[in-house]
Design a protein that fits this description.
Length: about 600
């Protein structure tokens, strides 16, 4: 379907709306082939989640940062894109016209939040809804997007509190005071302390600033009571409540703090006189919070993983700033999805997010793409590998193939994959190694140099560069062994994809999928342990029957991580957490 027809289909769809937020990297309907800076597994996760929500009958909008050029292009990311007829990308400007690495993305967030808030207000006005009613829920990914969602909710709560204050105080305080409160509602963070701001606005009367505090409170209470037709007993009850709350503090209590305490107590007393307003406000403030956070990574975990690295590298990660953001998000969010057990553990141990309140939602497997392929389906991929390597197709079909594919990043330790294969290649004439991934950066050039100048790799090991989409699924099925030496992963999507394809696995013991889902069937070794790596490869190459049996069990394990099933479970989890989510309409 062409983009214009997709746009029309999206606009005309009769479905409940869901919003996903993923803010850094080169997110979009077409991810850069082979990866790009800060672009990889999380983006694939979000796109797949969006498509599965669409499959369940929702219309999905993915919000991400725009205003800068696409990867390796001069075209600016601004116009909406459509991943499908029910999934669109909306690009948010902010932070300038250049790519910003995720460690520095905080510089863009204020502008992005302003733009996104205005966008949602326009959408709400077009649908005669409040901005927070446009989407059934907001699912954010990584800390930067979560911070945006939390700040949006804070702003919408500011709106609700300001409206309630205006309703309660209109005709009692000057219109100029109410208008000032409306203009400054976000600067004052009204949604964080409704009672205080109600009392504070009521006390903001000209000509009364020099009065003693008790007289000022009594004058405000009297004005309120008279305007609302309350008797003297009600007025006295308000004054007594405020005075008692202030005088409960010791005699050295600072006068400024007394005034702040008086404002909070006065607001509470007025709300107590208006229980229906108080209850409605509390209910509405709760309904505004429709945010669920999927961290994908936690600063504390990254800090632990990088604890032995040079300080020059650690400085660039800005982990203290990131931990502060994550702590704030956890304090103000009620639904969490952990993509690994390690993340769930740190949500609990460092941020006190109850494990029982956290949904386990690892990167799942798209069974339509990652599965065992038949011989006919693999023909094009064998041809692709043959043209790339110069090895005849028939030779490759009868050989055993080892595969590694991931973005070009030092933590993937592709150099170790090549070094381990260089040790075993002389013992197995019928084994070939293909290492995929891009971009073709300095690291890629270094790996190519390693291939070119290692005698035992000549004609046996090949760098593919970015693997075309048409071959991504079949190449896992073509492989007999998937081998990764990655030092750290949020989950290990490529390993789970290999499992789903029915491919045996040799993996480091730091990859969550390998240790939590495949520890009995994958060959595991410690990061950097080339001896353990080569021994694992050798064990699988020595015993074809054992390798195939393990591969079959891994395929069964991966079947339980089905995207459609887990997405439906996620919706059920959100409803248990109190989210009011309409049923999807697949026919809409």
């Amino acid at each position: 379907m062409d983009p214009q027809k997709r746009a029309e289909a999206f606009r005309d769809a009769d479905r409940p709306d869901v919003a996903l937020l993923t803010n850094h990297g080169y997110a979009g309907s077409q991810l850069p082939v082979g990866g790009a800076p800060d672009t990889g597994g999380q983006n694939l996760y979000v796109n797949t989640l969006a498509l599965r929500l669409a499959e369940l009958g929702y219309r999905v909008t993915i919000f991400t940062r725009g205003g800068f050029a696409y990867f390796e292009s001069d075209q600016i990311r601004s116009a909406p894109e459509y991943l499908s007829e029910h999934v669109r990308y909306v690009f948010i400007p902010g932070g300038g016209d250049s790519f910003i690495r995720k460690e520095d993305i905080a510089t863009a967030l204020d502008e992005e939040i302003e733009w996104l808030d205005a966008f949602l207000r326009r959408e709400g006005a077009e649908r005669s809804r409040e901005p927070w009613e446009c989407y059934e829920f907001i699912s954010s990914h990584y800390w930067d997007a979560a911070l945006m969602a939390v700040r949006l909710i804070e702003r919408w709560r500011d709106d609700l509190v300001e409206r309630s204050i205006r309703m309660l105080l209109e005709g009692i305080v000057d219109d100029s005071v109410l208008e000032q409160a409306r203009r400054e509602r976000h600067w004052r963070a009204m949604g964080q302390a409704p009672s205080f701001h109600l009392g504070y606005v009521l006390l903001q009367q000209e000509g009364r600033h020099e009065l003693p505090l008790e007289q000022r409170v009594r004058a405000a209470a009297s004005q309120w009571s008279a305007a609302r037709g309350l008797d003297a007993r009600a007025e006295n009850a308000i004054v007594d409540r405020v005075v008692q709350s202030v005088t409960r503090n010791h005699e050295d209590f600072d006068p400024l703090l007394e005034r702040l305490q008086a404002a909070a107590s006065l607001g509470s007393a007025i709300l107590a006189q208006n229980p229906e307003v108080d209850e409605r406000l509390k209910r509405d403030l709760d309904r505004v919070d429709r945010h669920a956070w999927t961290p994908h990574s936690i600063g504390e975990l990254k800090d632990y993983n990088y604890r032995g690295r040079p300080i020059e590298l650690r400085r660039t990660l800005k982990l203290c700033e990131r931990r502060s953001h994550e702590r704030m998000v956890c304090d103000r969010t009620r639904a969490f999805a952990a993509t690994s057990a390690k993340i769930a553990l740190r949500l609990w141990s460092h941020f006190r997010v109850p494990i029982e309140d956290t949904f386990y939602f690892p990167p799942c497997v798209n069974g339509d793409v990652f599965r065992p392929y038949g011989n006919d389906e693999k023909e094009m991929t064998y041809r692709y590998l043959s043209e790339l390597s110069g090895i005849p197709e028939e030779t490759l079909k009868s050989a055993r193939i080892i595969l590694e594919t991931s973005r070009m990043d030092q933590t993937k330790r592709k150099d170790l994959v090549l070094a381990a294969f260089a040790r075993i290649a002389p013992r197995y004439d019928d084994v070939f190694l293909f290492v995929g991934g891009g971009p073709r950066n300095d690291l890629y050039q270094g790996l190519q140099h390693q291939v070119d100048f290692t005698e035992t790799l000549e004609g046996r090991a090949f760098l593919t560069g970015p693997i075309p989409d048409v071959h991504i699924g079949p190449i896992f099925s073509v492989a007999d062994i998937y081998a990764t030496a990655s030092e750290m992963e949020g989950f290990g999507m490529s390993v789970s994809q290999a499992a789903a394809a029915g491919t045996a696995i040799v993996s480091t013991d730091t990859i969550p999928f390998s240790i939590h889902h495949a520890s009995d069937d994958a060959e595991l070794f410690s990061p950097g342990d080339i001896q353990g790596f080569t021994e694992g490869l050798s064990r699988l190459l020595e015993d074809d029957a054992e390798r195939e049996a393990r591969a079959a069990r891994l395929q069964e394990t991966a079947r339980a991580l089905d995207w459609s099933y887990k997405t439906a479970e996620f919706l059920r989890y959100l409803r248990r957490r109190g989210f009011e989510i309409a049923d999807g309409n697949p026919d809409g």
